[in-house]
């Protein structure tokens, strides 16, 4: 099968997520194939004998002779996929050595029939930018059609996600705050609709604290596995906001109205154990074993007959879907109005001037 540009880009992202160093020999092979695939045959002058690293790279690239770019691209994808299949579960993305984040703010990988969407903005506690909302929708769209059985959301770094990036509210378009609020409401509704309609089991691996919209949409997930370091916080009132992600419906249903009110109206932060007791979290794992235990379990789940899994999920979900869409629409309209409120504007300003933290 010929590798497309998309396969190639996905392989490049995958390499950046590898936890283990694959060793110099593999790195040289990957380097040479990458250069051949993107630039064609090596026509650089040979580095001097003492320039050991660049000479090794030059040798590896030159050894590919006139291999066509497309073949190099294919060989690169094949090599990455063979090495990934033999490797450990997908590891959280690592910051690059120079402090830049590898793979962009959102990293999507697919292996062992699991598509993993990783928030990868650890320096900002994985706060979700407008672009990330769009990329998550694209990733969900692709995952709904790929050969994966499960789709996982997780975070890179010490946080799972600090919720909506509060600077999303600051770029006001020519139509003024009303236009901004209207556009955001439409986009938010579309974003949440993706989760309501997603056809495969959705799993959250909550590796650390979760805030705001990253908590509320958990009510639309099938499984929520959490580190014992995770906390669950929806500080809507202090921000002049109201709940979203269908949480005004899913949370009371799941934990009862008064526990839901404590979280959604009064902003009580839950520990992972409390969230588990309230039904928001499926199971809590010691932080040190979370990755190993969860990924082993998820891989076992992918071996179940996929059509049976989908059918069971569909019969569990179909009855509530219409209701969820109605709730989503109502929540987005309430938020459209909240975004135009003085209470919300002052909360965002307080955060921007760093006087306010949760
Ligand atoms: C397609 C749809 C588009 C529509 C767009 C609108 C959609 C709206 C969706 C619904 C709206 C709201 C729902 C929510 O999610 S409300 C919750 C919002 N989140 C917060 O209020 C959290 C704010 N952050 C904090 O209180 C603290 O940062 C923290 C998370 C408690 C961590 O504290 P810390 O002391 O450990 O770390 P700190 O130094 O503060 O943070 C490190 C840097 O990260 C930046 N940062 C953290 N969180 C956010 C955030 N949510 N938005 C923007 N930036 C964030 C923080 O500013 C630091 O940056 P810097 O180092 O100073 O540059």
From TrEMBL:
SUPFAM superfamilies: Acyl-CoA binding protein, ClpP/crotonase. InterPro entries: Acyl-CoA-binding_prot_CS, Acyl-CoA-binding_protein, Acyl-CoA-binding_sf, ClpP/crotonase-like_dom_sf, ECH/Chromodomain_protein, Enoyl-CoA_hydra/iso, Enoyl-CoA_hydra_C, FERM/acyl-CoA-bd_prot_sf. It comes from the Eukaryota. Residues 4-89 form the ACB domain. Keywords: Isomerase, Peroxisome. GO terms for molecular function: isomerase activity. CDD domains: crotonase-like. Its main location: other. It is found in: Peroxisome. This is Enoyl-CoA delta isomerase 2 isoform X2.
